[in-house]
Amino acid sequence: MKMPIVFIGHGSPMNAIEDNKFTDKWIDIFKTIPKPKGILAISAHWYTKGTRITTVKEPKMVYDMSGFPKELYEINYDAITDELLIKRVEELLGTDNIIEDNTWGYDHGIWSILNRVYPEQDIPLVVLSVDAYKTPKEHYEVGKKLRELREEGYLILGSGNIVHNLKMIDWNNINAKPLDWAIEFDELVKSKLNSQDFKALVNYNQLGSIFQLAHPTNEHYLPML
Questions:
Q1: If we measure between CA atoms, which residue out of 58, 4, 51, 60 comes closest to residue 32?
Q2: 149, 6 in Cβ contact below 8 A?
Q3: Is a pLDDT exceeding 80 seen at residue 51?
Q4: I want to staple 38 with a disulfide (CB 3.0 to 4.6 A). Which of 31, 33, 82, 133 is the partner?
């Protein structure tokens, strides 16, 4: 069966332990997906010079956040890697275009999601970085090369956010409502995805100033491409 591609807005690391409308939806989505034989995860939080992939058998946990409850730092997502999936990714992207790198591991863009949707931790997991050197078009082309994995039983999981502007958050108001421009951008991206207008999403600078509001930096947007 052809596997879907999933892009999740991972939001706050607290989603790893809190029950809310976002985590409920994640769980509902993954209940509709056949259990993959392996997962290729692309996290906004592994933003590197060059395209990099984890190859160590048991990648380390990365707690790339501060100021959160102790319970978060005690999460250990114990999935092992998948040598066959690593080989397939290197074949599809070309070994000259990918660097084996085990200085990273499972960051909160990955474990906060998988801790909720696959708590059994029994699915092999490989992490691919977001390449800071690539253009948006090149990121899209990487996705096209990787899509063969869908026919082979692998799930491709992108983790970032449709809107990611931490400076605009009202940290002192837990009941703050989404800003109008954030809702507008979210609906714009949804519309482009539904109409399969991928060219517009790749050429995001043409979306106007609203993109700069939604993404002062683009690392949380690129995993969607």
A1: 4
A2: no
A3: yes
A4: 82
